User: Fold these one by one.
Assistant:
Number 1:
Amino acid sequence: MSRDHQYLILPGPVEVRKEILEAQSQWMIGHRSSAFADLYGRMHEKLQKAFFTENKVLMIGASGTGFWEGASRNCIRDDQKVLHLTGGAFSERWADISQANGKQVDTVQVEWGQAHTPELVAEALDNGPYDAIALVHNETSTGVTNPVKDIAAVVREQAPDTLIMVDSVSGFLGTEMRVDEWGLDLVLTSSQKAFALPPGMAFVAISERVLERAKQIEHRGYYFDFLSIAKSAAKNNTPSTPPVSLMYAADKQLDDILTEGIENRWARHIAMKEMTHEWATSRGFGLYANEAYRSNTVTTVDNREVGIDVNEMAKFMAGRGFAMDKGYGKIKGPTFRIPHMGDLQPAVLEEVFDGLDAFLGK
Ligand SMILES: *Cc1c(COP(=O)(O)O)cnc(C)c1O
């Protein structure tokens, strides 16, 4: 097979379609022009559909980590606490970020591969009050999807003043997530995961309660100050220079996603997850994540039984034109991940399995 590039089978950055890459090559515009305000306004309307919200969606030139920091700084008062649900590389890092910003952090740690349940959260809330609870929708390191809807319901009921902050970096546009219906105050994401854009942009949907909270916090920092970003956003603008080329790409990608249909997109991800489970288990591999909470966008394959050399596997697959994941952090090797997110189609996933079978000598 001949490919003109390495096709990314990585859980971020993901493969980006040529048409989307090409959308970036339009002529530059100044970001104080009416053409830019049009672009911003169009994108905002489509982003609200994508988040299933009527709340404001802020966008910025940064990776998702930027809005992690923004969330911690704008939503947690210095004399109050935040509850971080941790159990994987990303949820743990967000807790570190709150700590690095001087916030008082409590955590509910679950074992890697396990999910946070509403029961665990209900119990932990007794140690409050908490200004905010921070959780990761789809833990990309372990392939676990947390039951965000049910957790949010418990928080709303038991601690109605606690802001619900969700990282949906690898869930957004790949698996069900409804901001308004689920009552989420803040949901952040970035461009290079299931959104299937080049890296470099972050997005956050925020409720009025988030803005009210931010007003009570003196030191919100500068670049990720929600009040300043929201003030510019009201004029379809940004406080500092935005990534215009990437916004062209995002504008087109949102059109294409709405044409596919968001729910159809979720269904395509579920179908690819099922294909991946079927392939992995029929080849003797385990599935790392707890059965009830396996992700629709990425499968963490448990390699302990079969024990392939993930470096050799990646080398072999590179020869077939695929850049493969080798696992993340402390579970790299004993596990590796097969992402099935973004604009990936089942037919390409089949080619990946054919390649892996050839490597296994099947
Ligand atoms: C990739 C990822 C992040 C980090 O996002 P960046 O855009 O790389 O800063 C955060 N959370 C989750 C769940 C991720 O998968």
Note: The longest helix spans residues 262-282.
Number 2:
Amino acid sequence: MELPFAESYRIKMIEPIRRSTRAEREQWIKEAKYNLFNLKSEYVFVDLLTDSGTGAMSDRQWSEMMLGDESYAGASSFFKFKDAIREIMGFEYVLPTHQGRAAENVLFSVLIKEGDLVPGNSHFDTTKGHIEYRKAKAVDCTIDEAFDTTLVHPFKGNVDLGKLEKVLKENGNKVSFIVLTITCNSSGGQPVSIENMKGVRKLADEYGKKIVMDSARFAENAYFIKMREEGYGSKSIREIVLEMFSYADAVTMSAKKDAIVNIGGFIAMRDKELYNSASVFEIMYEGYLTYGGLAGRDLSAIAQGLHEATEFDYLETRVKQVEYLGNKLLGFGIPIQQPIGGHAIFVDAKRFLPQVKKEECIAQTLAIHLYIEAGIRGVEIGSILADRDPVTRENRYPELELMRLAIPRRVYTNNHMDLIAVALKNIWDKRNTIRTGFRIVREAPIMRHFTVELEKV
Ligand SMILES: *Cc1c(COP(=O)(O)O)cnc(C)c1O
């Protein structure tokens, strides 16, 4: 018999989680104004809100925490951090930040001015927020295939080079840089191929533009390249990572993802002048250049985490767990984004609940039902997240209404995956009884999804 796949780690410490009743959950979600961000985590049994900062650190990372050097300037932890980034990603200059959006804030303060365009594959919400806050515009140049959830394409994170060239040709003078999000979170944790990176690099060079890689899940992207791209099957993850970043001028990183820490981020750059300019904002917003809003222990844990996240065995365990859940759901006939992405399952809420009107928050409606069914907390990637147009203030209705089930790294077992699958199947079986959704009663002027309040229609 072929041996089944098993995790490449074992558990040394556990955290109890609490079961609840359906009646309790109905009460709690109502009190939370039907916003899952407003729920106390103790009211959640399986928390799939995000894979950001929710991973389990290894014994070696905890050891590094104890070795943290808390000196204000020049701490040894900073040099471990800097060396890991140089060795794994190939960048000479680094600035630590307290998380990924802080890296965007610091770097974009240098690179973006009012009226600029920032083309790329589907921008992550904080990236878009930091662009629009500066009165610039994020231009989505993702390939059309990404928006058809039924279509199996190995690199749905890819940039449509035709769309990108059009932006550069028509408005090249306004383009501040090109952003490549690896993996592409907003289109479903979908990877970008090396071939596509090369194509983007070629256009960037032709028009004299920088490429910034939004690299939260760069290691998962490298895993997909190894598994799916011709000519990369025998390369190591480390070799692929170095090649990926060879096409970038700078990187913004949320270490809460593929550095498997609970807090942290950084900017990495090739260019000393860019580093010098960014350093001014770093000191203003984040802290001194060698700690940037983090403790020394955090920097040490990131350094160790970057090494672990770029090991093949870790990545295989990680991606296979997400696949395991996805295949269960497909087996039940539940519509999910295909192929299955790296960090999450994206349930196609429009196909799940076609009878719910687009004004009634389709994906949010599904997420609320899943919470009530089994205490599982997913998140809406749909019209609430898409927010209003910054100029017209009209609601934007994205092509995809998705409910994301993000899987924290090294946290849940496949029994939890089974529970999630059956909970969703129960809703699938009674989907025709869900006729209406929810309406917004209060929202913030920007990034409204975190604090939005809803009521039943
Ligand atoms: C999480 C994330 C960010 C922002 O990082 P934070 O650490 O949450 O501030 C930016 N881009 C992508 C692709 C992300 O996934």
Note: The chain has two domains: 22-51+312-456, 59-309.
